[in-house]
Amino acid sequence: MEVLNIDKSDFNFALSEFDPLIVEDEIGFKTISNQPAECYSNFFVEHLVKNQPCIIKACAQDWTSSQHWTISGKPNYTLLKDKFGSAQVSVSDCKVKYYNAHQTKSMIFSDFMNYWEKYSSDCWPANEACLYLKDWHLMKNFPTESVYVVPYQFSSDWLNEYYMDHPHLDDDYRFVYMGPKGTWTPLHADVFTSFSWSANICGKKKWLLFPPGEERVLKDECGNLAFDVRLGDVSASDISPNRSFTVVQEPGEVIFVPSGWHHQVWNEDDTISINHNWINACNIHQVWTSLKANLEAVKKEVSDCQDMDDWFEHCQLMLKSTFGMNYEEFYRFLFYIGTKRIEHLNQNELLSSFQTWKFGREHMLYDLVKIKEVLLLFIDCDELVELPFYSELNNPPEFFINDINNTVNGFLSSEYDFDGNCL
């Protein structure tokens, strides 16, 4: 396994007072070559810390899926049906709107592939359903399959690390998307305000991306996000050409979509893609900010019930339903990720990722510093004391912060103070 680490100069910058959600007046979308893994630290700062998107060329062409799931640039329908034919999958009809999404249904994978093969051979007829297989947990359901290698640029993935280490939770954020020409995804920002990456195995995608803050012009007078920027849901005059990016992603390329960047995506050809949503030290603050904002929205929605018993607990249940995570789950997530790094540092061990990469000392220390910063905000929330889980914790956040302080200061005291400033 190759070791990935953060250079000391990059470590200092990453710990500086840099707000990745304050987007500069002039920003650009970069297409970059797939550099060797020793360039990790540069990518870490320029794209993850700075929350800046890019496309990485020639990143996925050597994967097993790229080599065997396609024939002459098109899906290998027969092989895919033989491998996964009996799987149950969720598909969306891109011609039927259901509230602010597409109407979905379950299908047997082989039935979907038969539909797709005929639909494509018939030149994508306008009078038929346009079905898109989305959010398929293929790697969770077929763990022995060799499909792809997580690019080193995206290997610091706390979200999937957590779920892969807790198989009893039966969840993850590793997905496969498959769909014919003309399938598309409505305008959205990703779950938890997470990062995402998407690799094209075959086909082309067109992406329209908006940096954080631009969503204000993408909403109607009621505050609802536009469903489709093509349908007059958003006035073209409201969209600044300098504050949006249209890019085409070719086969073998991987796109990085940072936290809080809204996007709409179209498949311009029969397309297969592999995607991760992910969280790490570079965007955990954005995730916390989004979690807290969603709780405030919930509390406002049910403010007329504030006198009811267990109102704070009820708000947490609603937060779990709308956001996908509540305060208890957020803390247990951070506690697991942080404790794992403390143990590896104390045992002088590298931390493995996706059985391909390993993280060095500075990387784990950076993770701990960022977890501590968020925990200090977390314990400042008045409603914590109203939640039963908080009083029942064997390792409350105040104690955990002390553990982080002791570990980080023990390693960095000779070179840095805890806030990352050179001594």
Automatic annotation (TrEMBL):
SUPFAM superfamilies registered for this protein in UniProt: Clavaminate synthase-like (SSF51197)
Any GO MF annotation of the entry: sequence-specific DNA binding
Catalytic activity entry: L-lysyl-[protein] + 2-oxoglutarate + O2 = 4-hydroxy-L-lysyl-[protein] + succinate + CO2
InterPro entries (alphabetical): Cupin_8 (IPR041667), JmjC_dom (IPR003347), JMJD6_ArgDemeth/LysHydrox (IPR050910)
Pfam families: Cupin_8
One GO-annotated biological process of the protein: positive regulation of translational termination
Domain JmjC: 139-295
Family: Belongs to the JMJD6 family.
Protein name, as recorded: Jumonji domain-containing protein 4
